[in-house]
Design goal:
This protein has 2 domains: about 40 residues, no CATH class; about 200 residues, 3-Layer(aba) Sandwich (Rossmann fold). The protein is about 35% helix and about 25% strand. Strands 3, 4, 5, 6, 7, 8, 9 and 10 form an 8-stranded mixed sheet that branches. The protein has a two-stranded antiparallel sheet with strand order 1-2. The termini are far apart.
Length: about 250
């Protein structure tokens, strides 16, 4: 009996190697798991900068605080965007829609793509849009590395106090670049690191130098700046068509 058991085990080992049952029909499951883990975690640092953690949806009331207009002069920022009535605008990291609702009124023949990675934020956006009877806001659930934007259709990607939280900056910038229309621009708004009087934690500030350090190598060129806000930089970028994607080589 023992002899037969030995031969059965031996033949099974030859015919069915250890990886057969675990990976049949799958392509390197360990690599798949590693890829998913990297997708969910992302970077903690980029080009010498510590990446900030994304604001949790429970902090959404801070976005619509009564003092925000007084502190940041949001209406001045909206004028600086020079929007046209039929523009397609992406509010990147839209949260509960503080800016998305305001922009929707400025592009009545266009639309606003409100992108966020938290479904809870998008639920708040939908409700606020419903109450305001705004029909041209489209909530979009993005991921940490993909904002899920249509290629070549966005006239302005409006990114307010959000870029410094991107855990996959290179992938996000690549996707943003791909989404821009021929006249499309990226408006990057960040709290000024250069000004110690801006009452924001250093982790949530960026300098102009750092912004240029990160944007230019990712295929963007600076086309305009607006310096009329009390706390924030406003830097406008367009696609640099002379840029060559190093990952495509």
């Amino acid at each position: 009996m023992l002899r037969w058991s030995f031969w059965l085990v031996f033949i099974s080992a030859l015919c069915f190697p250890p990886w057969f049952g675990a990976s049949y029909g799958k392509e390197n499951p360990r690599k798949d798991d590693q890829k998913k883990e990297a997708e969910n975690t992302g970077r903690t640092h980029y080009m010498g900068r510590t990446i900030a953690v994304t604001m949790h949806f429970t902090g959404a009331p801070w976005l619509v605080r009564e003092s925000r207009e007084r502190e940041e002069e949001c209406s001045t920022l909206l004028k600086a965007l020079k929007l046209k009535p039929n523009d397609v605008v992406c509010d990147m990291g839209c949260g509960n829609g503080f800016y998305a609702l305001k922009i929707a009124k400025l592009v009545p023949q266009g639309k606003v793509l409100g992108v966020d990675i938290q479904p809870e934020m998008l639920r708040m956006l939908r409700e606020r849009a419903r109450v305001s009877k705004l029909k041209n806001i489209e909530p979009v659930l993005g991921t940490l590395s993909d904002p899920k934007l249509p290629a070549g259709q966005v006239d302005l990607v409006f990114c307010v106090d959000a870029y410094h939280e991107f855990s996959h900056p290179e992938k996000m910038l690549k996707a943003i670049r791909k989404s821009l229309s021929k006249k499309g621009r990226l408006a990057l708004v960040e709290f000024r690191e250069e000004d110690p009087l801006v009452p924001i934690k250093p982790l949530h500030k960026m300098s102009k130098q750092q912004i240029l350090k990160e944007l230019i190598p990712n295929g963007f060129k600076l086309v305009e700046q607006f310096n009329g806000l009390p706390w924030q930089h406003v830097m406008f970028f367009s696609r640099d068509d002379a840029w060559q994607d190093p990952s495509a080589e």
